[in-house]
Design a protein that fits this description.
The complex is a heterodimer.
Chain A (H helix, E strand, L loop, with lengths): L1 H31 L6 H18 L4 H24 L7 H23 L14 E4 L2 E4 H23 L1 H11 L1 H6 L4 H26 L9 H12 L4 H22 L1 H18 L14
Antiparallel strand pairs in A: 1-2
Chain B lengths: L12 H5 L5 H20 L2 H26 L7 H18 L4 H20 L8 H20 L1 H4 L4 E3 L4 E2 L2 E2 L3 H26 L3 H11 L1 H6 L4 H27 L1 E3 L5 H14 L4 H24 L5 H5 L1 H19 L3 H15 L5
Antiparallel strand pairs in B: 1-4, 2-3
Helix pairs in contact in B: 3-8, 3-11, 3-12, 3-13, 4-5, 4-6, 4-11, 5-11, 9-11, 12-13, 12-16, 13-15, 13-16
The chains are: A mainly alpha, B mainly alpha.
Chain lengths: 290, 354
């Protein structure tokens, strides 16, 4: 029972971080129709900017977080303006490849400036563990779940209530109709990339805190795909469900069956979902006409 | 001033179907043939090994371009299909003891079958979804190879015997690269010629119809499901050939040579060279294989003034790789092939702009 509970907490923690990473991915896909293969590198860059501000520049926690957010917004906007905007109207293959190129570039830049060895960063979340129903559960994992939940709720409220959130949904629904309503589609695209970079920053810092600040953070980028396919490529609630399911699936497979299989099980699930229900649980079914 | 052709005007279907229409095209073909024949006698062993790698890459890139560039089915599973070719060829040749040519043919057929299987999701999915599905196939093939200990007898890699065909055995170090050059050149040339001819047939044309608009293609009587699977099979067959040749040429097979990075490298080749162009795939293979080498040379030349370049060589290489992909897609999405055509036109019309 206690192992089960432990696995559950670890799985939920991984899953909620995955959900955060997937949120950025879905934001970009929903608003701009771009599949972003560089999402993992956004996590990586976020974690390293925070590390630079917090450890190298010795800024206080709040200031470091603020620097992280500003840099993330800047990167998001710059990427949208100079890399994705020239690609508007190109075929999906080219757009996928440009984000793959971006991911190689960002990864290499981080490697060039920080090297490949893990960086030591003082823990932000408390590291102790508490007894919960006979299982020892690390506090930082529990807090990671809470933080992810708060951020995801905040984003959901933003989409439902705020002006910009509603404008984003309008653009996602129909770009031309949104334009006639006086919404600046360009600004919405920039906003989507900036928000995606910010949610990736939060996810990246959380991963860096509960494991380590190193190149492996980028591996979350590919795991985003099973999550979004399960939840539906264009669904925000889908990322939460998908993230938690994939996180738990990985953790339980690793714990009860085979740790090696745990790395590939999300992709097996991905293929099965694609064969049975390609639009995911919450995704919108698109009907194609000539 | 001599009269200049203003364009090529075909008057019969036969002339339109010809691969080469003008005298200068024959001239360039002759020049290329002479260059290829002279190459092994001019280059030293090191550069010849680079050329051999290029020839293998040409086969793989042409194979991928059939699927991605001509049929419009994006595949991130290239590395996995190459791995299938490499491992099966190595096992057929060394463990079952088939003669090498038979082993390679077997490997090609097996890769085609595996490619068709992983192409099945392509019947329901397209574009972005298919990219994600093939990404999963890459991960699954990689996992199977790493964990299936019977394949590698638990060592994680396979040794392959020296290449031997009809009693002729590739020699030792001094002539090794040169003899491989001829083998690979013949196979690469056959690949290029057959791919080029494939798109003059009805089957090849139906690939392009599916790429341009699959629903319309279906309306004019193209069996889209069959065409997509055939494209996966043909493409994976060539890719498997490239994998098998990698195995026999390098004489050791390990899964690290067939990761997702390889899939991305090959996609980069056909993007840089030009999607939907056989010549483009060849240019891309040359460009992307030589790029790391050029970067190394430049970094070494500048090591005294900018030591950062040599210290961080792998990172610099990856950054350039990413930058090249991004710049090509933004500046010239149709790749080197289009740049070459524009250069030809510029010279032809000179001193006029058009």
């Amino acid at each position: 029972m206690s192992t089960f509970l432990n696995q559950l907490i670890y799985g939920l923690a991984d899953g909620s971080i995955l959900a955060l990473a997937a949120l950025g991915f879905v934001l970009i896909y929903k608003a701009t129709g771009v599949i972003n293969f560089a999402q993992g590198e956004f996590l990586l860059v976020g974690a390293y900017t925070f590390y630079t501000a917090f450890v190298v520049l010795q800024l206080p926690l709040i200031a470091a977080a603020l620097v992280g957010v500003l840099v993330a917004i800047l990167i998001g906007v710059v990427v949208e303006r100079f890399i994705l905007r020239p690609m508007v109207g190109e075929n999906p293959i080219s757009i996928i490849m440009v984000t793959i190129g971006l991911s190689a570039l960002l990864n290499a830049l981080v490697q060039a400036f920080y090297g490949t060895s893990p960086k030591s960063q003082p823990k932000i979340l408390p590291t102790g563990s508490i007894d919960l129903l006979g299982a020892t559960v690390p506090i930082n994992r529990l807090l990671a779940i809470v933080i992810a939940a708060v951020v995801l709720t905040a984003f959901t409220i933003f989409f439902r209530r705020s002006r910009h959130g509603i404008a984003m949904r309008a653009v996602a629904d129909d770009q031309q109709a949104a334009m006639t309503m006086g919404i600046s589609v360009r600004r919405i695209f920039a906003l989507a990339w900036a928000l995606a970079a910010v949610s990736a920053l939060i996810a990246g810092v959380l991963v860096g805190d509960i494991s380590a600040v190193d190149q492996n953070i980028a591996a979350f980028g590919l795991l985003v795909f099973p999550v979004v396919i399960l939840g539906g490529l264009d669904s925000v609630p889908g990322t939460i469900v998908g993230g938690l399911v994939i996180g738990l699936l990985q953790q339980f497979t690793g714990g009860y069956l085979d740790p090696g299989l745990a790395t590939v099980i999300p992709y097996i699930a991905l293929v099965l979902i694609l064969l049975v229900r390609p639009y995911g649980i919450f995704g919108e079914t698109r009907i194609e006409r000539v | 001033m001599a009269a200049t052709a203003t364009g090529i005007h075909h008057r019969t279907y036969v002339s339109e179907l010809r691969l080469r229409a003008t005298r200068s095209e024959y001239f360039r073909l002759g020049l290329l043939t002479v260059l290829l024949l002279v190459l092994p006698f001019v280059l030293d062993n090191y550069w010849l090994s680079q050329v051999n790698l290029i020839l293998i890459a040409v086969i793989g890139a042409v194979g991928l371009n059939i699927l991605v560039g001509y049929t419009g089915q994006i595949s991130l599973g290239q590395g996995g299909f190459m791995a299938v070719g490499a491992y099966s060829s190595a096992i057929f040749a060394d463990r079952i003891g088939l003669p090498t040519p038979l082993a390679i043919i077997g490997a090609v057929l097996l890769s085609a079958a595996v490619g068709t299987f992983f192409g099945l999701p392509g019947l329901r999915l397209k574009g972005l979804y298919l990219a994600i599905a093939t990404l999963a196939s890459q991960m699954i093939i990689e996992f199977v190879i790493r964990r299936w200990t019977w394949l590698t007898e638990g060592q994680g890699y396979l040794n392959v015997d020296r290449f031997e065909v009809f009693g002729f055995k590739v020699g030792a170090r001094a002539v090794f690269e040169q003899q491989w050059y001829w083998i690979l050149l013949i196979l690469a040339a056959l690949t290029v010629i057959s791919a080029r001819n494939l798109f003059r047939t009805g089957l090849g044309r139906s690939f392009m119809a599916v790429r341009d608009q699959d629903i319309a293609a279906e309306a004019i009587g193209v069996n889209v499901a069959r065409v997509k699977l055939t494209a996966f099979a043909i493409s994976s067959g060539f890719v498997g050939l490239a994998g098998a040749l990698t195995a026999h040429y390098s004489e050791v097979v390990s899964w690290e040579k067939f990761t997702l990075d390889v899939s991305i490298l090959y996609l980069a080749m056909i993007i840089v060279g030009g999607l939907g162009s056989i010549a483009g795939a060849v240019y891309g293979a040359i460009f992307m294989t030589l790029l790391p080498e050029v970067i190394r040379q430049v970094a070494n030349a500048m090591s005294s003034s900018v030591p950062f370049l040599t210290d961080q060589l792998p990172a610099v290489r990856n950054a350039t790789f990413g930058l090249v992909i991004i710049l090509f897609l933004i500046i010239e999405p149709r790749g080197l092939d289009r740049i070459w055509q524009r250069m030809k036109e510029y010279i032809r019309f000179w001193p006029f702009r058009y």
